[in-house]
Request: fold
Amino acid sequence: MRPSGRNVSEMRPISIETGVTKHAEGSCLIKCGDTHVLCTATIDERVPPFLKNSGLGWVTAEYGMLPRATNTRMRREAKNGQSGRTQEIQRLIGRSLRAGVDRVALGERQITVDCDVIQADGGTRCASITGGWVALKLAVNKLMKAGDVISDPLIEPVAAVSCGIYGGQAVLDLDYPEDSEAGVDGNFVMLGNGQLVEAQMSAEGATFSRAQMDELMALAEKGVAELVAAQKAAVGA
Reply:
């Protein structure tokens, strides 16, 4: 039995509220159970120096957790004092979102997606990627409406979900009690068409078989399909 009472292939309740901030070109509040992440997208008509005059756009991300996102207060991270975990998650979000972008169609501009965890209960990086795509899509819609972008540069939705081996069973969408005790923990990033962007799997005190890995992949495909449906509903696609 899972601590939440969910069956092994059941996601936590998902909600995505859009337009939650006044100034950002795209914004949403994504809730995956008790994990809540505020995602905003900012358009900049410049690109990093290494892309200047290339004709290519860029999508990057920043990630952070508020001090009381967890059950005990954490110290705020200054940008130059970010933990290795934070830096790793930022890079993961950025490259995940870029996997679904036609950077030629985006044009020579940068969109920065900020993901701020308000409340954490496992799966914050996955919720950030899923909500980050919604914020990115809303920002791109503004570019298209203004005529600054001719064709939609977002090829496919990008979403992510966690899966793991808990109590000897493959389970979908780990919350914190499961994540903290899972024998195997994995994060799966996928496009809306089912193509894999990234799979992070690691044994946490127990090894796993090829059959179990395939079982986790099947669960991830189911979970991502549900997340993509929620994304499309949120942006009116």
Remarks:
- The domain at 14-235 is CATH 3.30.230.70 (Ribosomal Protein S5; domain 2).
